[in-house]
Amino acid sequence: MDIRRRGAVMSRGIDEYLRAIIKGIPIILLAVVIGVLTGYVVCEIVLGPKFEAETSVTFYPAESGSGNPMVLQLTGADKEEEKARREECARIIGGEETAAAVIDKIGLKVDGQPMPASRLMGMLRVPVPENTDNIVIYVTDTDEKRTAAIAGAVAEMGALKIEEAFPGSQARDMSFSGIETREIGPDLKIFMAAGGLIGLISAVLLILLIFISDDTIRTARDVDRALGVETIGVIPFDKSEVQAVLSAAASPSKMPPKKPGKKDKKRGARK
């Protein structure tokens, strides 16, 4: 048979695919449940919650009426100088020296050893402020209390490092805002929904793959597809009759006695 003809013959209708999917609904439901549970485990146990703490350091210039004029101010000076000061202050607060001071201050450890400064720096985000005397500090971590403690220590140690970097400025006149902590992820609903969707798609694809790869002939339609000929008729298949024959074959004593044929009668007559 021509290969192209055979490919056309073996093509299946959409109704057959739908029936295969409907038959596999129990498997699909099981896969969805497993996917949802997997999403929950990954979100709550493997990844765990993630928190972000936010605080800020504000620099008061002389004209603000703070009482103590400061040499360091981020606005009101030359534009290029303002930009350089803002970038330098953000770099100092989020830099290695500040991170090392914070680790020593609150005793951050990993596996019993002091936390590497590079790791803490990866938890910090200090954007360069634009046209403001306010530098915002963001800290992300998996423990809510530790996140807030790190944010407060970074603001305090960063201010001291700025005082060292800019002689004549007074860190005590810098204002620290309150620390706001919030959970930023991962989103449990999204993980569970994604797990269920992945389970659904995987189960459907698996069912269709098994259905497509199965070339067993079960119906007259399968014969037409496999051989390219139409069936004249179909002999009904009765499972009960087949089982009766098989059970009788297994127990010869239960089989009905064989009726004598013509040859048997002739032999009896000769005797």
Secondary structure: elements and pairs:
Elements (H helix, E strand, L loop, with lengths): L2 H7 L4 H10 L1 H23 L2 E9 L20 H15 L2 H11 L2 E2 L2 E2 L2 H7 E2 L8 E8 L2 H22 L9 E2 L3 E6 L2 H26 L6 H8 L11 H12 L11 H9 L1
Helix pairs in contact: 3-8, 5-6, 5-7
Number of helices: 11
Please tell me the overall pLDDT: 79
Instruction: Please identify, by name, the CATH architecture of the largest domain.
Output: 2-Layer Sandwich
Distance between the termini: 60 Å
Question: Which features would summarize this protein structure in a list?
Answer:
Alpha-Beta Plaits, 271 residues, two-stranded antiparallel ribbon, five-stranded antiparallel sheet, alpha+beta, 2 domains
What does this structure look like?
It is a single chain. The protein is of the alpha+beta class. The protein folds into two domains: 3-43 and 190-254, no CATH class; 49-184, 2-Layer Sandwich (Alpha-Beta Plaits). It contains eleven helices and seven strands. Strands 1, 4, 5, 6 and 7 form a five-stranded antiparallel sheet that branches. The protein has a two-stranded antiparallel sheet with strand order 2-3. A hairpin with a 2-residue loop joins strand 2 and strand 3 (113-114). Helix 3 runs antiparallel to helix 8 (188-213) and helix 5 packs across helix 7 (144-165). The longest helix has 26 residues, at 188-213. The radius of gyration is 40 Å and the shape is elongated. Mean pLDDT is 79; it is low at 1-10 and 62-71.
